């Protein structure tokens, strides 16, 4: 099991390196594919992943990415309204095939998965995006690793005992502090080796905020799974589960990194 998980993890890192470094259409297409798979995993828990209702959700996500690619962000509000109307049309004209909770989950899934993940691409496209985008992964995965280590060493107070019994308050603090420290070190490395103007304080702030939010993303994904009594969202990634199992914290971290970078790099 450990060997399978390790091999899958190495392959994920290689894919991330290739797509993120390439940026542009390669990263865009990869994120779109990941988003659609992740949405399918989410829709599967209410059995709409292969239905007309789920299809409307997939079309909504594709339309969102099309607007992002063409630069028509001003039309996103219109898309939101059109998506809701489309879902409600399916709901009423096929009644009583679907339930209201299925409609809400499909609508939620478009923005929770596709919308949030798209910020990896949007961060990559910023002026210093080639370096800033790695903070998305550094914050989420770095925080998780630091939180685990600190929690094992000194963790005593449970953070969310009914949701994730192994997570502690001490681990959470250690995770946020670790993400901030890694962010600062990353800034120094970027400045030294790439000659990019990277402020360690700014990167540390981004790391801390991203790390804190990443824990919420992780716990939120766990809460959804517990509500529906499932262990993993999928089996696509051997040893890790599905897309949502591996990218649950990245989904929440990416928008935070994007907007903090835009604000702090002015």
Architecture overview:
- This protein has 2 domains: 104 residues; 139 residues, no CATH class.
- A hairpin with a 3-residue loop joins strand 1 and strand 2.
- It is globular and about 60 Å long.
- The chain starts with a helix and ends with a helix.
- The longest helix has 28 residues.
- The chain has 266 residues and is mainly α.
- 77% of the residues lie in helices and 3% in strands.
- It has a two-stranded antiparallel sheet with strand order 1-2.
- Helix 7 runs antiparallel to helix 8 and helix 7 packs across helix 10.
- Low-confidence segments: none
**Total number of domains:** 2
Spell out the helices and strands N to C: HHHHHHHEEHHH
Structural class: mainly alpha
Query: Biggest β-sheet, characterized?
Result: 2 strands, antiparallel
Radius of gyration: 19 Å
Strand content: under 5%
Average pLDDT reading: 90
Order of strands across the widest beta sheet? 1-2
Number of helices: 10
What would a concise description of this structure say?
The chain has 266 residues and is mostly helical. Helices cover 77% and strands 3% of the residues. A hairpin with a 3-residue loop joins strand 1 (158-160) and strand 2 (164-168).
């Amino acid at each position: 099991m450990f060997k399978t998980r390790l091999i899958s993890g190495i392959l994920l890192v290689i894919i991330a390196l290739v797509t993120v470094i390439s940026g542009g259409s390669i990263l865009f297409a990869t994120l779109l594919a990941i988003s659609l798979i992740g949405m399918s995993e989410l829709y599967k828990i209410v059995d709409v992943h292969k239905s007309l209702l789920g299809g409307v959700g997939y079309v909504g996500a594709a339309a969102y990415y099309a607007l992002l690619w063409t630069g028509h962000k001003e039309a996103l509000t219109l898309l939101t309204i059109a998506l809701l109307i489309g879902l409600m049309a399916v709901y009423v004209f096929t009644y009583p095939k679907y339930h209201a909770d299925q409609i809400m989950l499909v609508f939620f899934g478009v923005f929770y998965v596709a919308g949030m993940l798209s910020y990896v691409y949007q961060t990559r496209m910023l002026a210093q995006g080639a370096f800033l985008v790695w903070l998305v992964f550094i914050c989420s995965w770095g925080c998780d690793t630091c939180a685990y280590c600190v929690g094992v060493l000194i963790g005593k107070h449970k953070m969310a005992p009914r949701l994730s019994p192994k997570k502690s308050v001490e681990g959470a603090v250690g995770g946020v502090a670790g993400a901030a420290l890694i962010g600062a070190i990353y800034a120094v490395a970027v400045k030294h080796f790439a000659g990019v103007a990277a402020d360690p304080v700014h990167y540390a702030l981004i790391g801390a905020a991203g790390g804190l939010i990443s824990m919420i993303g992780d716990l939120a994904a766990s809460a959804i799974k517990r509500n529906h009594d499932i262990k993993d969202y999928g089996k696509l990634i051997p040893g890790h589960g599905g897309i949502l199992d591996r990218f649950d914290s990245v989904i929440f971290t990416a928008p935070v990194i994007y907007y903090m970078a835009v604000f702090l790099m002015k």
